[in-house]
Amino acid sequence: MSSVNYDTRIPNNVDLAGDRRLQRALERWQPAFIHWWRDMGPADSLNHEVYLRTAVSVDRDGWANFGYTRMPEYRWGVFLAEPVPQRKIGFGDHKGEPVWTQVPGDYRAALRRLIVIQGDTEPASVEQQRFLGQSCPSNYDLRNLFQVNVEEGRHLWAMVYLLHAYFGRDGREEAQALLERRSGDADRPRILGAFNERTPDWLAFYMFTFFTDRDGKFQLYSLAESAFDPLSRTARFMITEEAHHMFVGITGLSRVVQRTCQVMSGMRTDAVREHGVIDLDTFQKYVNFHFSVTLDLFGAEVSTNAANSYTAGIKGRFHEDDIADDHRLTDAAYTVDQWIDGAVKTVEVPALNALNYRLRSDFINDVKAGIDRINRVIASHGIAFEVKLPHVGFNRRIGSFAGVHFSPDGEPLSDEQWQAKHGEFLPTQEDRAFVRSLMPAAITEPGKFANWIAPPPRGINQQPTDFEYVRLD
Ligand SMILES: [Fe+2]
Ligand SMILES: [Fe+2]
Predict the structure, then answer these.
(1) Distance (Å) of CA 33 to CA 10, 115, 171
(2) Which CATH number fits the domain 16-471, given the four candidates 3.60.110.10, 1.10.620.20, 1.20.120.920, 1.10.540.10?
(3) Rounded distance from Cα 398 to ligand 1 centre (Å)
(4) Closest-lying ligand to the alpha carbon of 208?
(5) How far is the CA of 148 from the centre of ligand 1 (A)?
(6) Ligand with minimal distance to 121 CA
């Protein structure tokens, strides 16, 4: 069961051959997917040979196999983590009952919606990143971008499999629509705001993989708890892929900061832009932007929708089993920060309604560990600068703080103050133009790195850093 069948058009470990109808439906969707990839996938990349990993089994240790592939020939497929024998529902009204192998009628609409929203983010991020190959800082980084891109494509496959296998005709229609929406398109935008933002430069890409892919990790962990077992198993395998995306984020940001600090200590000056590296103030503004738009992805702090999903057993908490409570939460309370009567107040609300807030807090703790790592790089150069996360109310569009202006320190600002000051907090046009000016063209010669980023300490899959990860056509 765990090994993947590659003798078929769609690699899978779900015995697709045993369900001809489903197989045929997915085989009809496949050319539409390839068409979308050619149209909206990484620009000018169709004939590059890329050193990519592919799943060969879903076992914890041996799933990745490395080799050169042209991306349109990547073996996208359907991989689910092994079932947990006798798995029981871990939370909500159905706690203790056997998990569902089919979709219960009562929860069909809610589950479909959840899967569609998750599925929509996957091609969206590929679309957002499609021009980055034209300005990559190295052959190594280009390969990592493409690895992330093909795996987001794989995640789309994962959600489309669930839609086709469990949601009948409306599932098939939703699967089709996932290939029709476009990131940033005025008429047919992607569903979530952060996935309609552009990822215009490589600093934004590392920020996106650091912050926004990490939101993905936490969403996937909460879906891995789902009572709907096929969704749980799908999410569990996706989590193993997601780890690489966050690796790209944290190592990319650390290398940017390392290079800046090298120049700062060598030059004994803060004015490093003229030396062709990203100044730490600009780095901080990017952090402010990407952190705040990613917080919006968790939804409103207080949400009856989140309560309903939990009670129904559809979406659990991060590491649900490790939490010492009754896993029903009908009588429990939780404290959340809210904007009430013109001030930030900490209030107690029913724990069921605070689940978005709680997941977001788990995410923030994880982010903090990464920011600490970046700050250690700065400190190791003896430079007095600390990257800080902005206040949770800063630059928010969703939830209690939407419509209120804050400084990154959490000081409420009037509209006029915000207008006067937001350029100190968020990247300006000029900041973004400067960052882009550092990346005028792709650097693809193996072993060469752009001036604004330090080389990685080691390569991928124990290859050297000057390995030819992408053979350009
Ligand atoms: Fe993904
Ligand atoms: Fe990802």
Answers:
(1) 12, 17, 16
(2) 1.10.620.20
(3) 22
(4) 2
(5) 8
(6) 1
DSSP 342-355: TEEEEEEEEGGGGH
Comparing C-alpha atoms, which of 294, 273, 287, 293 is closest to residue 430? 273
**Considering every ligand atom, which ligand is closest to the CA of 122?**
1
**Cβ neighbours for 281, distance < 8 A, ≥ 6 positions apart:** none
Q: What integer is the mean pLDDT of 338-345?
A: 93
Domain edges within the chain: 16-471
Residue range 398-408: mean pLDDT, rounded: 96
Ligand number, closest to the Cα atom of 212: 2
Alpha helix positions (H), 340-469:
355-380, 415-425, 429-437
Alpha-carbon distance of 407 to 304, in angstroms, equals 29
* 262 neighbors 382 (Cβ within 8 angstroms): no
Cα 85 to middle of ligand 2, angstroms: 28
- Helices then strands, each counted (H, E), the chain: 12, 7
Residue 2 has pLDDT above 90, yes or no: no
Amino acid 53 reads: R
- Please name which ligand lies nearest the alpha carbon of 223: 1
Please report the pLDDT score of residue 1 as a whole number. Answer: 44
